[in-house]
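In response to the reviewer comment on reproducibility (Comment 2.3), we provide here a single inverse folding case reported in full, input and output, so that an independent group could reproduce the run without further information from us. The C-alpha coordinates appear first.
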Protein backbone atom coordinates (compact mmCIF):
# COMPACT_ATOMS: atom_id res chain seq x y z
CA UNK A 1 0.00 0.00 0.00
CA UNK A 2 2.80 2.40 0.87
CA UNK A 3 4.45 1.72 -2.50
CA UNK A 4 1.20 2.44 -4.35
CA UNK A 5 0.79 5.75 -2.52
CA UNK A 6 4.41 6.70 -3.27
CA UNK A 7 4.06 5.90 -6.99
CA UNK A 8 0.86 7.93 -7.25
CA UNK A 9 2.52 10.86 -5.52
CA UNK A 10 5.54 10.71 -7.82
CA UNK A 11 3.35 10.57 -10.92
CA UNK A 12 1.43 13.56 -9.64
CA UNK A 13 4.64 15.50 -9.13
CA UNK A 14 5.89 14.70 -12.63
CA UNK A 15 2.74 16.13 -14.22
CA UNK A 16 2.44 19.19 -12.01
CA UNK A 17 4.11 22.55 -12.33
CA UNK A 18 3.17 25.19 -9.77
CA UNK A 19 5.11 27.86 -11.64
CA UNK A 20 7.62 28.67 -8.89
CA UNK A 21 10.63 30.55 -10.30
CA UNK A 22 13.05 31.39 -7.46
CA UNK A 23 16.36 33.03 -8.31
CA UNK A 24 17.57 33.47 -4.69
CA UNK A 25 18.56 37.09 -5.30
CA UNK A 26 17.08 37.93 -1.90
CA UNK A 27 20.02 36.27 -0.14
CA UNK A 28 21.73 38.90 2.05
CA UNK A 29 24.75 40.72 0.66
CA UNK A 30 26.32 40.77 4.13
CA UNK A 31 26.06 38.66 7.25
CA UNK A 32 27.67 40.58 10.11
CA UNK A 33 31.28 41.27 9.10
CA UNK A 34 31.08 38.76 6.23
CA UNK A 35 30.59 40.08 2.69
CA UNK A 36 28.96 37.91 0.04
CA UNK A 37 30.73 37.03 -3.20
CA UNK A 38 29.01 35.21 -6.06
CA UNK A 39 30.54 31.82 -6.80
CA UNK A 40 30.64 30.26 -10.24
CA UNK A 41 28.53 27.13 -10.44
CA UNK A 42 30.33 23.94 -11.38
CA UNK A 43 29.10 22.68 -14.74
CA UNK A 44 29.71 19.13 -13.54
CA UNK A 45 27.52 19.64 -10.48
CA UNK A 46 24.74 21.34 -12.45
CA UNK A 47 24.75 18.55 -15.05
CA UNK A 48 24.60 15.96 -12.30
CA UNK A 49 21.84 17.58 -10.22
CA UNK A 50 19.74 19.18 -12.96
CA UNK A 51 18.31 21.68 -10.46
CA UNK A 52 15.46 24.02 -11.35
CA UNK A 53 17.40 26.79 -9.60
CA UNK A 54 20.76 26.99 -7.85
CA UNK A 55 23.03 29.65 -6.38
CA UNK A 56 26.29 29.62 -4.43
CA UNK A 57 27.60 32.55 -2.37
CA UNK A 58 30.80 32.74 -0.32
CA UNK A 59 30.68 35.10 2.66
CA UNK A 60 34.19 36.36 3.34
CA UNK A 61 35.86 38.20 6.21
CA UNK A 62 39.62 37.49 5.95
CA UNK A 63 40.40 38.79 9.45
CA UNK A 64 37.75 36.67 11.14
CA UNK A 65 37.69 33.14 12.43
CA UNK A 66 36.45 31.41 10.34
CA UNK A 67 37.54 33.53 7.34
CA UNK A 68 34.75 32.36 5.01
CA UNK A 69 31.47 30.48 4.82
CA UNK A 70 30.12 29.07 1.56
CA UNK A 71 26.35 28.73 1.15
CA UNK A 72 24.83 26.75 -1.72
CA UNK A 73 21.08 26.64 -2.27
CA UNK A 74 19.42 24.13 -4.60
CA UNK A 75 15.78 24.07 -5.64
CA UNK A 76 14.03 21.17 -7.35
CA UNK A 77 10.36 21.05 -8.32
CA UNK A 78 10.25 17.39 -7.37
CA UNK A 79 12.50 14.91 -5.58
CA UNK A 80 14.45 13.68 -8.63
CA UNK A 81 17.11 16.46 -8.91
CA UNK A 82 17.76 16.39 -5.18
CA UNK A 83 20.56 14.35 -3.58
CA UNK A 84 21.57 13.97 0.04
CA UNK A 85 24.42 16.33 1.07
CA UNK A 86 25.95 13.42 2.96
CA UNK A 87 26.44 11.56 -0.30
CA UNK A 88 28.05 14.62 -1.85
CA UNK A 89 30.63 14.87 0.95
CA UNK A 90 31.52 11.20 0.67
CA UNK A 91 31.77 11.42 -3.13
CA UNK A 92 34.13 14.38 -2.77
CA UNK A 93 36.51 12.45 -0.54
CA UNK A 94 35.52 13.84 2.88
CA UNK A 95 35.46 11.56 5.91
CA UNK A 96 32.41 12.45 7.97
CA UNK A 97 32.88 12.44 11.73
CA UNK A 98 30.26 13.65 14.18
CA UNK A 99 26.69 14.30 13.07
CA UNK A 100 23.92 15.90 15.06
CA UNK A 101 20.49 17.42 14.52
CA UNK A 102 20.19 20.97 15.85
CA UNK A 103 17.60 23.74 16.06
CA UNK A 104 18.71 27.21 14.96
CA UNK A 105 17.17 30.36 16.39
CA UNK A 106 16.15 32.92 13.76
CA UNK A 107 15.97 36.37 15.42
CA UNK A 108 13.80 37.92 12.71
CA UNK A 109 11.43 34.97 12.64
CA UNK A 110 10.55 32.32 10.08
CA UNK A 111 8.08 32.67 7.20
CA UNK A 112 6.36 29.48 8.42
CA UNK A 113 5.37 27.89 11.75
CA UNK A 114 7.76 25.72 13.72
CA UNK A 115 11.55 25.86 14.01
CA UNK A 116 14.59 25.80 11.76
CA UNK A 117 15.95 22.26 11.95
CA UNK A 118 19.39 21.45 10.51
CA UNK A 119 21.95 18.65 10.42
CA UNK A 120 25.42 19.68 11.58
CA UNK A 121 28.45 17.60 10.76
CA UNK A 122 32.21 17.66 11.00
CA UNK A 123 34.35 16.34 8.16
CA UNK A 124 38.07 15.99 7.38
CA UNK A 125 40.07 15.49 4.19
CA UNK A 126 43.85 15.54 3.74
CA UNK A 127 44.38 17.55 6.92
CA UNK A 128 41.61 20.06 6.19
CA UNK A 129 38.68 20.27 8.59
CA UNK A 130 35.21 21.74 8.01
CA UNK A 131 31.96 22.23 9.85
CA UNK A 132 28.89 21.90 7.65
CA UNK A 133 25.21 22.57 8.10
CA UNK A 134 22.40 21.53 5.85
CA UNK A 135 18.71 22.32 5.96
CA UNK A 136 16.07 20.39 4.01
CA UNK A 137 13.10 22.70 3.41
CA UNK A 138 9.64 22.14 1.98
CA UNK A 139 6.55 24.40 1.96
CA UNK A 140 5.61 24.78 5.62
CA UNK A 141 8.74 23.62 7.42
CA UNK A 142 12.17 22.02 7.58
CA UNK A 143 13.70 18.71 8.52
CA UNK A 144 17.11 17.08 8.84
CA UNK A 145 15.74 13.66 7.87
CA UNK A 146 16.34 12.68 4.25
CA UNK A 147 13.46 10.11 4.09
CA UNK A 148 11.06 12.62 5.65
CA UNK A 149 12.19 15.31 3.21
CA UNK A 150 11.72 13.07 0.17
CA UNK A 151 8.24 12.14 1.39
CA UNK A 152 7.25 15.76 2.05
CA UNK A 153 8.43 16.85 -1.40
CA UNK A 154 6.73 13.94 -3.16
CA UNK A 155 3.40 14.40 -1.38
CA UNK A 156 3.40 18.19 -0.97
CA UNK A 157 1.68 20.84 -3.09
CA UNK A 158 1.92 19.97 -6.79
CA UNK A 159 5.14 21.27 -8.29
CA UNK A 160 6.22 23.14 -5.16
CA UNK A 161 9.31 20.99 -4.72
CA UNK A 162 11.99 21.32 -2.08
CA UNK A 163 15.07 23.35 -1.16
CA UNK A 164 18.44 22.20 0.12
CA UNK A 165 20.67 24.73 1.86
CA UNK A 166 24.25 23.55 2.39
CA UNK A 167 26.76 25.65 4.35
CA UNK A 168 30.45 24.86 4.80
CA UNK A 169 33.11 26.69 6.78
CA UNK A 170 36.70 25.76 7.73
CA UNK A 171 37.85 25.02 11.24
CA UNK A 172 40.68 27.53 11.72
CA UNK A 173 43.26 27.19 14.49
CA UNK A 174 41.47 24.11 15.78
CA UNK A 175 38.56 26.25 17.03
CA UNK A 176 35.57 24.15 16.02
CA UNK A 177 33.19 26.06 18.32
CA UNK A 178 33.78 29.33 16.47
CA UNK A 179 33.05 27.57 13.19
CA UNK A 180 29.82 26.14 14.63
CA UNK A 181 28.66 29.53 15.93
CA UNK A 182 29.42 31.33 12.69
CA UNK A 183 27.66 28.62 10.69
CA UNK A 184 24.47 28.83 12.76
CA UNK A 185 24.37 32.63 12.65
CA UNK A 186 24.85 32.66 8.89
CA UNK A 187 22.20 30.02 8.29
CA UNK A 188 19.74 32.00 10.42
CA UNK A 189 20.27 35.03 8.17
CA UNK A 190 20.24 33.23 4.83
CA UNK A 191 17.49 30.65 5.26
CA UNK A 192 14.40 32.94 5.29
CA UNK A 193 15.50 34.64 2.05
CA UNK A 194 15.91 31.28 0.31
CA UNK A 195 12.40 29.96 1.04
CA UNK A 196 10.37 33.16 0.97
CA UNK A 197 9.22 32.49 -2.60
CA UNK A 198 6.84 29.79 -1.32
CA UNK A 199 5.08 32.32 0.88
CA UNK A 200 4.84 35.31 -1.46
CA UNK A 201 1.67 36.13 -3.36
CA UNK A 202 3.08 35.67 -6.86
CA UNK A 203 5.11 32.57 -6.02
CA UNK A 204 8.02 33.66 -8.18
CA UNK A 205 10.55 34.65 -5.54
CA UNK A 206 11.22 37.86 -7.45
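Designed residues, in position order:
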Amino acid sequence: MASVVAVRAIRHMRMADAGYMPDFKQMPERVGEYVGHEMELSETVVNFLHPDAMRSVEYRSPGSNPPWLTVSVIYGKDWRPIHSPLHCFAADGWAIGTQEEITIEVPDGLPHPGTLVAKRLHAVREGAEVVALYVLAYPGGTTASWPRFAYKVATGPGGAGGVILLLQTPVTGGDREKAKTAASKTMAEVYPACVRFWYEDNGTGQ
